Amino acid sequence: MNVHRKHEKYERLLARAKEVPAVTTAVVHPCDESSLSATVDAAKAGLIVPILVGPRARIEALAREHGISISGYEMVDAPHSVAAAAEAVKLVRAGRADCLMKGSLHTDELMGAVVARESGLRTGRRVSHCFVMDVPIHDDVLIISDAAVNIAPSLEVKVDIVQNAIDLVRNLGIADVRVAILSAMETVSSKVPSTLEAAALCKMADRGQITGAVLDGPLALDNAISPEAAKIKKIKSEVAGRANVLIVPDLEAGNMLAKSLSFLADADAAGIVLGARVPIILTSRADSVLTRLASCAIASLIVAAKRKAPERHIA
Question: Would you tell me how many other CB atoms lie within 10 Å of the CB of residue 15?
Fold first, then answer.
């Protein structure tokens, strides 16, 4: 691998996404320069067809101030961020949008509208977040879940977290999905609850309660992604040393892992929320342009997979 090609995994995702139709995306409250420019960049790249949802006068003034052309984009006027989230969800429920994209509102405001019992976008799955990481020194993308939505998930919630992540990887065109259930060690101990849950999840996969991938756990991070570490520990499995999905014990662990890779290993982290009726693109003001585009590319590939296989539940 050429370690100097920092973004090669994202570049492959973008190339694949440009082969499928742009996805109609309700962009919720794009009321700062970062979110509005990200929307326009994604539209120009042919990844999304945006519907701007938020206070029209404020968005138009912002576009003029920063020289961002939004002519030709549909707009839905909403007085504030909470109303924008509600209107965007209505667009999805009406079949007018196939994806949501977070603008400059708080994630909690957007997700509140998504998970509302009567008016939201719930499915039979628990909503969960995935980081799709492009780590320069690693050959393949790494999926980390859940690092942003579920704080201390139960075993039942982790089943959905794992299945959502598996479906995501398969929708990205990767057939060989290898899931590592992470803990601080690779042996099962009653003193460390995450090791018990890891073992249970693996047995659930054996029994068909989780499908589409091979699971192993508990695994420590080193023997999940390093063949050498797995060999030293004498761990023999299809996953050890070769995992492309990392399921963390809780949000704190996942958040620290993702940010450690970003700030210490120069990795990029594209964010997507799964388990609702449509994918939800979560971008950060700190994201690079390429990372934002990668998040949109991921959503477009999910929507394309759903269109090809409508009978399957696509996360």
Answer: 10
